[in-house]
Amino acid sequence: MPRFAANLTMMYHEHAFLDRFAAAARDGFKAVELLFPYEFRAGELKARLDAHGLTQALFNAPPGDWAGGERGLASLPGREDEFRRGIDTALDYARVIGNRRLHVMAGLLAGDEPGETQRKKQRDVYLHNLAYAARAAQAEQITILIEPINPRDMPGYFLNRQDDAQAICAEVGAPNLKVQFDCYHCQIVEGDLATKLRRDMAGIGHIQIAGVPQRHEPDIGELNYPYLFELIDSLGYDGYIGCEYRPRAATSAGLGWLAPYLEAAR
Questions:
Q1: Domain range spanning residue 171?
Q2: pLDDT in tens, the chain (266 residues)
Q3: Which long-range contacts (CB under 8 A, 24 or more apart) does 197-204 make?
Q4: Reduced to 3 states, what is the DSSP secondary structure of residue 262?
Q5: DSSP conformation class of 215
Q6: For residues 75 and 148, what is the distance between their CA atoms, to the nearest angstrom?
Q7: Which of 20, 36, 80, 241 has most Cβ atoms within 10 angstroms of its Cβ?
């Protein structure tokens, strides 16, 4: 039976952020995820989770200057010290909050060298930084995640494909480094989701969903999510499925798709 986590960064915008925990719990969610927790004290977030019986399923490591357009540090040459400090901060939060999944964003392809030369340089930095993050997280029993992101939503993002992400994890060789499989991004870049889920499930550490192409609720668009949920169950995935979508209107009003799964869980 699939278990769903509400993404509080993208959902429940009709509520102030700290009130979104209560709203998600009222709607039947048992877990939440979010992009970045760092505007708030870790203890404050933990108190909200505990008050509403919620598990924190996922958050991201610091991404650099997000407001300035940066989208992660892990592949950026010359930013290694800042990356390591960010991992330390993220792990400090995870210890308090109880989070066991940490997404590390790769960053944008940068530099003035020819494309393949720059990509190789950044890939080397990426592998080195991911190995560091995995070692630092292993003692905390935390899984580091990398996510292929489509270039339509995030032009220039370093990592776009599932096979590349799986190859990077294999090359690093850390048991707690896995791929965050976002169905929305994968459909836009590659399609053929069922085949990729079957092929890669052993290396998948977290799954996210949204309707394609507009990133609304998963009951509209070109993906057959009931079929995919059954497949994911049959493949033995026991983690949370993150609802990383933008509701068409009020979040609670758009949760009709979730009701059958909540009822079955009861």
A1: 3-265
A2: 899 999 999 999 999 999 999 999 999 999 999 999 999 999 999 999 999 999 999 999 999 999 999 999 999 999 999 999 999 999 999 999 999 999 999 999 987 665 788 899 999 999 999 999 999 999 999 999 999 999 999 999 999 999 999 999 999 999 999 999 999 999 999 999 999 999 999 999 999 999 999 999 999 999 999 999 999 999 999 999 999 999 999 999 999 999 999 888 77
A3: 197/228, 197/231, 197/232, 197/235, 198/231, 198/235, 200/162, 200/166, 201/235, 201/236, 201/237, 203/166, 203/169, 203/170, 203/178, 203/179, 204/178, 204/179, 204/180, 204/237
A4: helix
A5: -
A6: 13
A7: 241
Question: Distance between CA atoms of 38 and 201, rounded to whole angstroms?
Answer: 31
Dihedral sign (CA 181, 45, 61, 132): negative
Q: Is 244 a catalytic residue?
A: yes
| Pure H helices in 190-251 | 193-200, 225-234
Between the two ends of the chain, the Cα-to-Cα distance in Å is 11
| Three-point CA angle 264, 209, 54, nearest 5° | 60
Domain count, the chain: 1
**70 given a catalytic annotation:** no
SS3 assignment, position 79:
coil
Specify whether the backbone of 215 is left (phi greater than 0), alpha (psi in -120 to 50) or beta. Answer: left
Task: Specify the CATH number for the domain of residue 256.
Answer: 3.20.20.150
The single residue of 33, 39, 140, 244 carrying the catalytic annotation is: 244
Contact 87, 133 (CB under 8 A): yes
